[in-house]
């Protein structure tokens, strides 16, 4: 058995002191600051920008939907928008599904 586990040798020195609790608290605090700056804060910023985008939607805006559909807004309701994807083709989506608002005339440039 001593082939796999060498025999224990008694220690002549005292056991090492326990680590300082302040160091542990500072490390946890640093981890929280890191997570806030690099994860939480940017995500909140994106959420705020998307909320502002959704509230500013109006009739006639050209938008890109989450699926990549380019369309022009025909009607805006409380929670939904109706978009014209092609001639006489109207689709209804939730406002949250809007990915971006395009400059006017983009759809004509892309389809030409």
From TrEMBL:
Main location: membrane
Family, similarity comment: Belongs to the YajC family.
Name of protein: Sec translocon accessory complex subunit YajC
Source organism of this protein record: Sessilibacter corallicola
Localisation per UniProt entry: Cell membrane
TM ranges: 24-40
Membrane topology term: Single-pass membrane protein
Keywords, comma-separated and alphabetical: Cell membrane, Membrane, Protein transport, Translocation, Transmembrane, Transmembrane helix, Transport
KW Kinase (keyword) present: no
Alphabetical list of Pfam families matching this protein: YajC (PF02699)
